């Protein structure tokens, strides 16, 4: 129990630390950040439940006003921005990513974690992000989907990185990859 709580808190801190990498905000109000890599890693390393809990802890801290989002944003107002759909989708993305890694014992953990990150950390996350963006900007779902295509190359790189990081961690400390235990 203590180990699980420690890892959940550690990964919430990892997501927050990834906000320190400078962000680049696009004209429609959604920033390009490294925090989605943290969401992917929550799922690939911690698994579905613990990964989602780590993200929920992070979002709770943001809601309480801690400036943990890229650019130092925090507070309930962060959930009213055009990017709020992505925030709401974070725990679901981590859960789906973790569930895939837990259930699919494919050819290699690198590939499994990368594919899981694409499905959970990109496809699932974008569904929430596009819906939120559509509501915030009063645009159609198709128009909002077109706006987020700029994120795809960077997120694909993050998914591959999540695969390599998870695999490397599993080789160095097999017991630390809870999605496989």
UniProtKB/TrEMBL annotation:
Belongs to the BioY family. It is found in: Cell membrane. Its main location: membrane. This is Biotin transporter. It comes from Sulfitobacter litoralis. Keywords: Cell membrane, Membrane, Transmembrane, Transmembrane helix, Transport. InterPro entries: BioY (IPR003784). Signal peptide: none annotated. It holds the Pfam family BioY. The chain crosses the membrane at residues 29-46, 53-70, 76-101, 108-133, 145-170. It is a multi-pass membrane protein.
